[in-house]
Structure formats: structure tokens, C-alpha cells
Design goal:
single chain; 287 residues; Mitochondrial carrier fold; 12 helices; SLC25A32-like; MCP_dom_sf; Mitochondrial carrier domain-containing protein; mitochondrion; transmembrane helix
């Protein structure tokens, strides 16, 4: 039977809501820096070697526009939608995959030695390998679901609203993308995104041990057996830290994906993963 918390909610629901909350809060806080990151990823290799973009220069250019606040939060809708959906779906699918693995192990486990005629089995504790594959499955499903949102987000964050070809809004951008490239356009960079599924694995490799340490510490302090669930506040903090570590680890793949998803990718960086990858290496080495 699936365990539930004191309110009767399943672990999948609890972790989904917590992940959604973490994704929403983190995105609202760091969105301007996400614009800086995206523009530096895409524009660094095409600027003059003597005028390489920096965090300060990008923020200064955004602040000098007629509507600085709007410029700093351009593309917030797809970023917010994508991150919230990504975090919620990752936790949801991870929880489902873990339960499926537990049921699969229990199905083939020997009956409990304490009561061999009861038909019950000893509880199975998931191994690190189980956690890895659960995270991998969750990351893959999440990437497929959210890739169209990331394409729109990248294209909006990469340019000012007044730039030629810029999308004025997420929905207008979606319509233009469909007319110009069809459904395939929404899945630009999906292959690299699949490689970046390791982001989820790294995130969980940091999050799960931290979660266990937190629960063990809380148990020692209270002296009471815990139900195995954290408060939403603790989940938000640990999830954010794990997300930052995973982001730093898989950053090169993020650069490659951003350049693939730009609406002038072929002209600016080359065709396909190989063209963009080779161009990224050779041009950035020269900067």
C-alpha cells in the first residue's frame, strides 16, 4: 500500500506540490539572471572579441531601456511555466517510478520469514541504482513534456522585444514557431536535452542524501519516529540547493541547447548538434 502523510495525501502529490512551489519561487527570484545567462550563452561567440558580454553589461543594457522592469522580466511566462512544470513533473514521475520499483521488487521477493503463510513480503529498500533509474525516467519524461516551453523561453529571453524577429509574447511566439517550423520546431534541442537528463540524476543525487540527513537529524532531536516526509519549506530549500549543483554540473549542455533553440541557430552557429557543437568549441576558444 502506498504510504501517505498525516493529511492523507500520497507522497507523489506531496512531492509534486513541493516541487511546484520550489520551481515557482526560484524562477520569480532569479529570472533576470536567467535572461543574463541565456544572452551570454547565445551571443558570446558573435560579439567582438574586445566587447565580450558580461553579467554587468547585460544588466546595464536591460536597465537602460524605456521599460527596465519589463525588460528584466521579459519571457517570465514561459520561464515560470516551464520551471514549475519541470519541477512538479520531475518529482511526480520520480515518486511513481520509485513506487513501481518497490512493487516490482516485492513481487519477486521471498515471503516474509516471520509469517511464511501470510503472503506478505519484507519491505524493500531501494538501492542507489534504483534511485538513479527512477530519476532518469523522471528526467526523460519531464524533458519531453517541457521542451516546447524551453524553445519559446530561449527565444524570448535571447532578445529585446523591439529586436527584429523577436516574439512579443509566448503565445504569439508559439504561433509563429508553428507556422515557420511546424511541430518539429518545438522540439529543437531535444536530443541535447535528453543528454542533459543527467541534470535530474545529479539533482537527485544531491537532494536524496540531504533529505535523509535532514529527517535523521529531526528524528534525533524529537525522539519520535517520523513518517518520512519533510515540511514544504525544507523541501524548497533542499530542492533549490540540489538544482543549483546540478545546473553547474550540466552547464555546457545548457549552452549547446540554448544555441540550438535560437531562431537564428543555423545562421549564427551552424546546422544541427555537430555544427553548433564544433562552432561553440572553435569560436569560444578564439574569444
Amino acid at each position: 500500500m502506498t504510504k501517505s502523510n498525516d493529511a492523507g495525501r500520497s507522497p507523489a502529490l506531496v512531492e509534486t506540490v513541493a516541487g511546484l512551489s520550489a520551481g515557482t519561487m526560484a524562477t520569480l527570484i532569479v529570472h533576470p539572471l536567467d535572461i543574463v545567462k541565456t544572452r551570454m550563452q547565445i551571443h558570446r561567440s558573435i560579439t567582438s572579441p574586445n566587447a565580450t558580454l558580461t553579467t554587468v553589461s547585460v544588466i546595464r543594457s536591460l536597465a537602460r531601456t524605456d521599460r527596465p522592469l519589463a525588460a528584466l522580466y521579459r519571457g517570465l511566462t514561459p520561464n515560470l511555466l516551464g520551471n514549475a512544470t519541470s519541477w512538479a513533473s520531475f518529482f511526480f514521475f520520480k515518486s511513481l517510478a520509485e513506487r513501481a520499483l518497490i512493487f516490482a521488487h516485492a513481487r519477486y521477493a521471498a515471503p516474509s520469514s516471520s509469517n511464511p503463510h501470510s503472503g506478505t513480503t519484507t519491505p524493500h529498500r531501494l538501492t542507489p541504482t534504483d534511485f538513479f533509474f527512477a530519476s532518469l525516467a523522471a528526467g526523460t519524461a519531464t524533458q519531453i513534456i517541457t521542451n516546447p516551453i524551453w524553445v519559446l523561453k530561449t527565444r524570448m529571453l535571447a532578445s529585446d522585444s523591439s529586436a527584429v524577429g523577436a516574439y512579443p509574447s509566448m503565445w504569439t511566439g508559439a504561433a509563429r514557431l508553428y507556422r515557420a517550423e511546424g511541430i518539429k520546431g518545438f522540439y529543437r534541442g531535444l536530443g541535447v536535452g535528453m543528454l542533459a537528463v543527467s541534470h535530474g540524476a545529479v539533482q537527485f543525487a544531491v537532494y536524496d542524501p540531504a533529505r535523509r540527513m535532514y529527517l535523521a537529524r529531526r528524528k534525533r532531536q524529537s525522539g519520535v519516529e517520523e513518517a518520512g516526509h519533510m515540511e514544504n519549506e525544507a523541501t524548497v530549500v533542499l530542492s533549490t540547493v540540489a538544482k543549483l549543483v546540478a545546473g553547474a554540473t550540466t552547464y555546457p549542455l545548457q549552452v549547446l541547447r540554448s544555441r540550438l533553440q535560437h531562431y537564428e541557430a543555423d545562421e549564427m552557429f551552424g546546422r544541427g548538434v555537430v555544427g553548433v557543437g564544433v562552432g561553440e568549441w572553435t569560436q569560444d576558444q578564439a574569444v
